[in-house]
Design a protein that fits this description.
Layout: E1 2-5, E2 8-12, H1 13-46, H2 62-72, H3 83-99, H4 118-126, H5 129-139, H6 143-174, H7 179-184, H8 191-194, H9 196-209, H10 221-224, H11 234-258, H12 268-271, H13 273-297, H14 303-330, H15 339-358, H16 367-375
Antiparallel strand pairs: 1-2
Helix pairs in contact: 1-2, 1-11, 1-13, 2-11, 3-5, 3-11, 5-6, 6-9, 6-14, 9-11, 9-14, 9-15, 11-13, 14-15
Length: 376
């Protein structure tokens, strides 16, 4: 059986699969090392530091040096760890992230595979890595790792639903689950104009799914030391790290395609392939920069705040948006009516967050003062 690969129609299907697999792994490895360097530089600028400067020109080889160091470190395993689950947990985190890369388009008809249910595939496959986090925490025979794994599972389940509902709202408007078709429909107006609330919900849920600040509860150093993979070292620890940054790139790439027009807006359909690549890269880079910006700006949330924000705020808003979109589309009202529930939802979201941040809390007295007050 033969298939087509970059214009060559007579490539064997197994050769085609191997070539595409190596392209994904090679590209994502280079992208992840670049993202690590860029994040260090951006955070250093925010904190009035220089960041990496000594390894290579401008510190460009720092990520490569770190990778070689991790490859050379000894691969340790706790004595009482479950050997089989401890070994396979890494792959349950690492492999699904790279599989999600398959259906996301970079330019017109330019992705690894064109899937009719591409959006459904990406969301479904990206949620599997939670299983790997639980396996890593449980098999390590470490209480800190287990607590981090439980936090990761609770957080992943809680924020997976709002994320799915956010992209479902866009899929309802587009009438398709094919990422190429969703992107192609945004040649004149990106979907973020009609669905700004869905984008806000997706962005917050994306931070939680990636365990990025302020949702880095599972790996909080001050509470659980290092989270589910505290007992991992060397190459296995680096695979967890690689999966985290690869997931950041893929979800930002997905957001740029679903909400920001991807390669299609503006003038992407007319200006050609190179301009489409520039558009996709610029939008993805802007989202990644915003994630780094949030990391150095917003403090970590408490676990109760994190869970309440999903179930009490994002979830009701997501369901209300789905209901409003369904009514507008079923009765074929003008597209401008799509803005009404989104604007109302954004205002409610802002009011809730502002109230939660600025409201005055009752002052708690120290224990001696409480005991003296009780005695009197």
């Amino acid at each position: 059986m033969n298939t087509e690969l970059f214009g060559f129609p007579t490539v064997n299907v197994w050769v085609d699969a191997i070539i595409r697999l190596h392209l994904i792994v090679g590209l994502m490895t280079v992208v992840v090392m670049g993202l690590i360097y860029i994040e260090r530089k951006i955070i250093a600028r925010f904190q009035m530091r220089l960041g990496p400067t000594r390894t290579g020109p401008l510190g460009l080889l720092q990520s490569l040096a770190d990778a070689l160091k991790l490859l050379g470190k000894e691969d340790l395993r706790p004595r009482n760890a479950d050997p089989l689950i401890f070994e396979f947990a890494v792959y349950f985190v690492f492999v699904p992230v790279f599989m999600a890369f398959v259906a996301i388009p970079f330019a017109f008809d330019w992705n690894v595979r064109v899937l009719e249910l591409g959006l459904f595939y990406v969301i479904a496959i990206s949620s599997v890595n939670v299983v790997g986090w639980v396996m890593a925490g449980w098999s390590s025979d470490n209480r800190y790792a287990m607590i981090g794994a439980l936090r990761a599972a609770a957080q992943g389940i809680s924020y997976e639903v709002p994320l799915i509902l956010a992209v479902l709202a866009v899929a309802m408007v587009a009438g398709s689950l094919n990422l190429n078709e969703i992107t192609g429909q945004q040649g004149h107006i990106p979907f973020i104009v009609w669905q700004p609330l869905a984008f806000a919900i997706f962005y917050v849920a994306m931070l939680a799914e990636l365990n990025r600040t302020p949702f880095d509860i599972p790996i909080g150093e001050s509470e659980v030391v290092g989270g589910p993979f505290i007992e991992y070292s060397g190459i296995r620890w680096s695979m967890f790290f690689l999966a985290e940054y690869a997931g950041l790139f893929i979800l930002c790439l997905l957001a740029s395609a679903v909400f920001l027009g991807g390669w299609a807006w503006p003038l992407g359909e007319d200006a050609g392939f190179l301009w489409q690549i520039v558009l996709t890269s610029a939008k993805t880079g802007l989202l990644i920069f915003s994630v780094f910006w949030v990391r150095v700006t917003v403090p970590r949330m408490r676990i109760d705040q994190l869970m309440a924000f999903s179930w009490k705020v994002l979830m009701p808003l997501s369901f209300a948006l789905i209901l409003a979109n369904g009514l507008i589309l079923v009765y074929e009202w003008p597209d401008v009516f799509l803005l009404v529930p989104n604007v109302i939802g954004l205002v409610l979201l802002y009011v809730i967050v502002e109230h939660g941040v600025t409201r005055r809390r009752p002052r708690q007295l120290a224990r001696p003062a409480l005991e003296a007050e009780a005695a009197s």
